Amino acid sequence: MGREERRNRAVREIADRMTKEAMDEGLIIKAGWVGFLLMVYPNGTSDAQREELRAAFYGGAHHLYASIMNVIGPGDEPTPDDVRRMALIDHELQAFLQEYKRRHGISDDLVPPEGKQHS
């Protein structure tokens, strides 16, 4: 395993741990927001732009959550329709992510090589 691969694995492990902690603390959307802002706008934004972006980010999160809660099947166990719908959400988000990466020249590497930043 090469140096970059070990580095990417370490970053993924840290990200997974931080995600679990944010979920347990009720801060998963805030954690996603902060991560989004750092990844997409590494040089920062104006206060006004940041507030508009935050509203859009939280609005999207709210829409998805409310939609899921509105159609989720009864009971404690996921129904086949629940599983299918979650797979479709995953497919839609993965398609967006791949399109975004392609348009912005971002590789599938989680962490860019040292000294190189994605814009």
Would you kindly provide a written description of the structure presented here, covering whatever features stand out?
The structure is a single chain. This protein is mostly helical and 119 residues long. Helix 1 packs antiparallel against helix 2. The protein is globular, with a radius of gyration of 17 Å.
Helices, strands, pairings?
Elements: H1 3-24, H2 28-40, H3 47-71, H4 80-104
Helix pairs in contact: 1-2
Give the SSE order as H and E letters. HHHH
Q: Count of DSSP helices?
A: 4
Structural class: mainly alpha
Quote the distance from N terminus to C terminus.
28 Å
Major beta-sheet overview: none
Give the strand tally: 0
- Mean pLDDT across the residues is 89
Strand content is under 5%
Task: Outline the low-pLDDT stretches.
Answer: none
Principal-axes geometry comes out as globular
Q: Whole-number radius of gyration?
A: 17 Å
Share of helical residues: over 70%
Label this structure with key terms.
119 residues, 4 helices
Outline of the structure:
This protein is an all-alpha fold and 119 residues long. 71% of the residues lie in helices and 0% in strands.
